[in-house]
């Protein structure tokens, strides 16, 4: 067996299942789940129709590079959304089976296996970053994201020695779990460090299309590159997904874009990895990237839920104000694991302990004392969950 598999930590939801072992939610209440970031809004009808009408494409092998029509649609969307020069769909854009798969695979492509190699990521974080690093033969370097820094990582918190040892750094904006958005100035500070120390920057932007202010969409890594004259996006890759933007988590569709040198090696790796997107998903994805109306409707629905839930929870919990994504990241009045277990048993609401998303740095876990609430259910369920949480908090 690969000995590095033994290095992998239990996934947060494995730990959650263990935490809840031996307790049950109230029998007189339906269980309301705010634990998993799985969109519950209906997928767009135009995408469903495209899949249903093109199932005959299952008779064809897909190509790893993806159909040119899909790559052109992704390049065009990226250009319009972020104000970029049109990327070369043949050299700078590559379809992937959702960002989760691609975030893991990019580390296997970019990380050398020499002693002392580091992969950086925010802390708390999406656990794929850590697993990808460990299975690529590297160690993780954690950049804490604390409340007093707006839940954002600081490039100056990493010393030059660690920057020199780092081969890849994951960024996430809007972030998971706090929804913090990195502005262009902060992204450019990371880019400058990455250029100086020859580090590959991978920006996970899967939540970029869910945000509160229609006039202020979150910026992205490639836009920050363009503004500083880095037209070849050297050492920079951004990743995007239809899972959150278009409520299509089961279709496993996204793309990576950026530095053509890295993309060429990523394509080479993926040819062996066997990760080509099914043909009918490629066709449906082309349609989804070309339509913004369903995305506008989706954002409005999330805004409605955030407003309603905040009105209920603000009197009893210290809430953050996320700049994007669909999570709340509140402080809780007792230990986050105990809060989660008791909330499940006494109120029938399931959240995720914040400590399960982080790791100890200097004997402290920046996720401790918080829980992640994913406002992915329908409005009525989110409101009822918030009311139950408020009632539970008042009993503590």
List the helices and strands and how they pair.
Blueprint (H helix, E strand, L loop, with lengths): L11 H9 L11 E2 L11 H8 L15 H15 L10 E4 L1 H13 L7 E6 L4 H8 L3 E6 L15 H6 E7 L11 H14 L2 E5 L16 H7 L8 E6 H4 L8 E5 L1 H14 L5 H11 L3 H21 L13 E2 L7 H12 L1 E2 L1 E2 L17 E4 L4 H17 L1
Helix pairs in contact: 2-11, 3-11, 4-5, 4-10, 7-8, 12-14
Q: What would you say about this model in short?
A:
The chain is of the alpha/beta class and 396 residues long. It contains 14 helices and twelve strands.
Give a description of the structure.
The chain is built from 14 helices and twelve strands. It starts with 11 loop residues before the first helix and ends with a helix. It is an alpha/beta fold and 396 residues long. The mean pLDDT is 97. The longest helix is centred in the C-terminal third of the chain and has 21 residues, at 293-313. Helix 2 packs antiparallel against helix 11 (279-289), helix 7 (184-197) crosses helix 8 and helix 12 packs parallel to helix 14. The protein has a seven-stranded mixed beta sheet, with helices on both faces. The chain is globular and about 60 Å long. 47% of the residues are buried. It has two domains: 3-42 and 294-395, Aspartate Aminotransferase, domain 1 (Alpha-Beta Complex); 60-291, Type I PLP-dependent aspartate aminotransferase-like (Major domain) (Aspartate Aminotransferase, domain 2, 3-Layer(aba) Sandwich).
């Amino acid at each position: 067996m690969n000995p590095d598999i033994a290095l992998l930590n239990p996934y947060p939801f494995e730990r959650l299942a263990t935490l809840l072992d031996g307790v049950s939610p109230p029998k007189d209440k339906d269980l309301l789940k705010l634990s998993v970031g799985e969109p519950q809004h209906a997928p767009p009808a135009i995408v469903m129709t495209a899949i249903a009408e093109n199932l005959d494409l299952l008779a064809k092998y897909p190509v790893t590079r993806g159909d040119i029509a899909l790559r052109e649609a992704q390049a065009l969307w990226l250009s319009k959304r972020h104000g970029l020069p049109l990327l070369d769909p043949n050299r700078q854009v590559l379809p992937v089976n959702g960002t989760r798969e691609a975030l893991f695979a990019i580390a296997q492509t970019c990380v050398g296996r020499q002693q002392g190699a580091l992969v950086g990521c925010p802390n708390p974080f999406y656990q794929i970053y850590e697993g990808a690093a460990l299975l690529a033969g590297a160690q993780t370097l954690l950049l804490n994201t604390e409340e007093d820094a707006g839940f954002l990582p600081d490039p100056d918190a990493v010393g030059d020695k660690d920057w020199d040892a780092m081969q890849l750094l994951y960024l996430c904006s809007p972030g998971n779990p706090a929804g913090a958005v990195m502005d262009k100035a902060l992204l450019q500070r990371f880019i400058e460090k990455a250029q100086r120390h020859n580090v590959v920057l991978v920006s996970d932007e899967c939540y970029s299309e869910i945000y509160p202010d229609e006039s202020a969409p979150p910026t992205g890594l490639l836009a920050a590159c363009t503004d500083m004259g880095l037209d070849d996006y050297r050492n920079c890759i951004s990743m995007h997904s239809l899972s959150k933007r278009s409520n299509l988590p089961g279709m496993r569709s996204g793309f990576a874009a950026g530095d053509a040198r890295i993309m060429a090696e990523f394509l080479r790796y993926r040819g062996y990895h066997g990760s080509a997107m099914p043909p009918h998903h490629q066709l449906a994805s082309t349609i989804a990237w070309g339509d913004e109306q369903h995305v506008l409707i989706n954002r409005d629905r999330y805004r409605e839920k955030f407003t309603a839930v905040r009105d209920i929870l603000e009197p009893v919990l210290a809430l953050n104000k996320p700049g994007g994504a669909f999570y709340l990241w509140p402080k809780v009045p007792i230990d986050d694991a105990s809060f989660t277990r008791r909330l499940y048993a006494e109120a029938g609401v399931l959240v995720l302990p914040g400590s399960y998303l982080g790791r100890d740095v200097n004997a402290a876990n920046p996720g401790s004392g918080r829980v992640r609430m994913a406002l992915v259910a329908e409005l009525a369920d989110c409101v009822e969950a918030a009311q139950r949480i408020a009632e539970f908090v008042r009993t503590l």
